[in-house]
Write a structure and sequence with these properties.
Blueprint lengths: L3 E4 L5 H12 L3 E6 L3 H13 L3 E6 L5 H14 L5 E4 L15 H26 L8 E6 L3 H4 L6 H21 L4 E8 L6 H4 L5 H5 L11 H12 L10 E4 L4
Parallel strand pairs: 1-2, 1-4, 2-3, 4-5, 5-6, 6-7
Helix pairs in contact: 1-2, 1-9, 3-4, 4-6
């Protein structure tokens, strides 16, 4: 069966690293992006230059119509989906809970939680043997913040990732007998651009001393865990979460 993967938020950072490793593993790769078209096109170009198959589609996972259009694009261009990585996620500038307004919180949950639910729904409709599919695998991008709480910084983001943990466990049990495995990866402090979105671009170097391994992680280290969970080597693993966090 042809291996076809959709990686949401795949233009930069962890998503881009997953895209590159997936292409090396023989997947036809579709990445979605919201704003960073040039970065997404650069990922596609790098993969195709190595004789891989890749495309980029603009979509906002917080908008249901965009998600439906994204999946239909994969159907038409590549064929039946075999792997989904719910990687798209956002955070806002660092703030305490008593400084947050409802618009911010709703924006975080719309992308990080609702987006992952709707993408998972579309993937299950294609992969599940209940829907005449041939099975597949889903990996959700959680965060160690879901256990640590991110006080004084991103409690809303941490709470959204706790919802992803629950989605992973519940959906894994729901579709385990339908040929679909669902797992999560929980990165710790990783060198990506997301910290700049929170107003703290040097955050990794600022807090790395709190990590038992005394360093920040790299997107490729997270991507390797994702690819393992998608692979046949993880054939008896579902409902699990792998921490890639240097022991933190």
């Amino acid at each position: 069966m042809k291996k076809i993967i959709l990686i949401t938020g795949g233009s930069r950072g962890i998503g881009a690293a997953i895209a590159h490793l997936a292409a090396e593993a023989g997947y036809a790769v579709c990445i979605s992006y919201l704003h960073h078209r040039a970065a997404a096109e650069a990922v596609v170009a790098a993969i195709t230059q190595k004789n891989g198959i890749a495309m980029a589609v603009q979509a906002d996972v917080a908008i249901e119509e965009d998600v439906i259009r994204l999946f239909k694009h994969v159907d038409a261009s590549f064929g039946p989906l075999t792997a989904l990585v719910n990687n798209a996620g956002i955070l806002e500038r660092q703030a305490r809970v008593d400084e947050m307004d409802s618009t911010r919180i709703q924006r975080i949950f719309a992308t990080n939680v609702v987006g992952s639910f709707i993408c998972s729904r579309e993937a299950v409709r294609r992969m599940s043997t209940r829907h005449a599919g041939k099975g597949g695998a889903i990996v959700n991008m959680s965060s160690r913040a879901s256990h640590l709480g991110a006080p004084g910084e991103y409690v809303d983001y941490a709470a959204s990732k706790a919802a992803i943990d629950t989605l992973t466990i519940g959906l894994a049990k729901e579709v385990a007998a339908e040929g679909i495995r669902v797992n999560a990866v929980s990165p710790g402090i990783i060198y990506t651009d997301i910290h700049a979105s929170g107003g703290d671009p040097q955050r990794v170097d600022r807090v790395k001393a709190s990590v038992p391994m005394k360093r920040g992680g790299y997107p490729e280290e997270v991507a390797k865990a994702v690819l393992w969970l998608l692979s046949d080597d993880a054939s008896y693993t579902t409902g699990a979460s792998i921490d890639v966090a240097g022991g933190r």
